[in-house]
Amino acid sequence: MFEKLYSSAKALRRHQDGPFAAERERYLQHCSDTGATYWSMRIKCNELLWAARLLDADAKNGIDMAGLEDLFNRRIIFQNAATTRPRFIAAVRPWLRFLGWWREPVVVYKFQEKLDQYCLWMRDERGLSTSTIVGWRCRVRDFLLWCNRNNRQLQRLRPSDIDAYFIDDNAHHWSRRTVANVAALLKNFLRYAAWQGWCPSELAEAIRGPRIYAQESLPYAPSWSDVQRLLAGTLTDAPKDIRDRAILMLLSIYGLRATEVATLRLDQIDWGQRVIRIFRLKRRQPQVYPLLPSVAQALARYIDITRPLTPFPEVFVGLHSPQRPLSRAGIYKVVSQRFMALGIKVIHHGPHALRHACATRLIADGLTLKEIGDHLGHRSTEATRTYAKVDLTALREVGDFDLGELL
Questions:
Q1: Domain extent for 123
Q2: Residues 167 and 44 in one domain
Q3: How far is it, in rounded angstroms, from Cα 3 to Cα 11?
Q4: Cβ partners under 8 Å of residue 323, min gap 6
Q5: Which of 122, 147, 197, 265 has the fewest CB atoms within 10 Å, counting from its CB?
Q6: DSSP-assigned beta bridge partners for residue 270
Q7: Which residues are part of the catalytic machinery?
Q8: At what angle do helices 224-232 and 239-253 cross, to 10 degrees?
Q9: Does 90 lie in the same domain as 47?
Q10: By the 8 A CB rule, do 289 and 296 touch?
Q11: Same domain membership, residue 372 and residue 275
Q12: Domain boundary among 66, 99, 132
């Protein structure tokens, strides 16, 4: 790999004879395979050589952020070693992580053991999905962190402490629906905590969330013309636009959730049968969709031309080295940035807004709630009924109905 980066015999020998040459060359080959540019690899190569010279013999036992900062401080002491901290960190940390030598910082809280035990119970006893457990874990962790900051001990909690948590404006700014969801979640956790003897048994029953009325809100969907504007903005040859076009089509045409797009694998696209198989988290079974020509074209263009070479099976990966699969947060960022750039006015700027736009479009095309629910992967029609409120044609028919003979 060094031969591809340096033509000077002196420079080549310097890198080949330096410490950890095999480890550095293996990582550089990985960067090349995943689409790193020539000049970015030259920068990496230079910084890695300096880091290798400064590493101790026990580097394989793990290096944390403090150790990496120490390497940088020693790096800038040397003559003609001017560099910036972000560049050094950005080059060396992925290399250490690639080798398995990076020691991730672990934040341990007083309640960590209890929180882990609660998550295991949700998984093993209640059978909740991983994404649900992650969401609940974050909410419970935030509550327990608040308790630590305010010197509230779990075994001595009182209902007034729970009230103080909900009205603490410095901790959160929640909508009424979010308050109701958090109240239900904390009630579940405190019931489990009482069962384990961690807190008073009457605490959970003292929680009362605000009442939420069924179908009280409207879907927060952009108009279909705004969706078309989003897609029109991706009609370029830029790699990011090519990738984002495929993502936006899956969200707006099939109404997929962000997690379903993020976890979509190459083997779920059947080019021969012209179908795409989506594993629905709610239904816990795959759902087969016809692969529409426009979507097939967008996916094929991304996979064949733009998608970096990577061992990951997920379809959508980052464009910059080291390329990793996009997370749900990454999908959200793709959508929200384009909403903001175009100045589209919508309550929420994330992928779920496009899911709502898909449902609203299907309503306008005359599909039944059952058909729309099946398309979106709903388990029951209850989740689909909210879209009946945007069926303007049907609502006009109700408004025009003559009740004169019935009065």
A1: 112-206
A2: no
A3: 10
A4: 34, 35, 308, 310, 312, 317
A5: 197
A6: 275
A7: 257, 282, 352, 355, 378, 387
A8: 160
A9: yes
A10: no
A11: yes
A12: 99
Other beta carbons within 10 Å of 316: 24
| pLDDT, mean of each 10-residue run, the chain (407 residues) | 83 88 88 76 87 83 84 74 75 87 72 90 87 86 88 88 83 77 91 92 85 58 85 91 93 87 91 87 72 92 89 87 82 90 81 84 72 66 55 45 45
The pLDDT of residue 81 is 52
CA distances to 247, 330, 378 from 238, in Å: 15, 18, 35
Other Cβ atoms closer than 10 A to 241: 16
Residue 148, pLDDT score: 86
The CATH number that applies at residue 325 is 1.10.443.10
* Residues 66 and 148 reside in one and the same domain: no
Please check whether residue 404 lies inside any domain of the structure: no
Q: Is the pTM of this model over 0.85?
A: no
- The contacts of residue 349 (CB under 8 Å, 6+ apart) are 335, 336, 339, 340
Report pLDDT for 213. 60
Cα dihedral: 11, 12, 17, 22 (round 10): 130
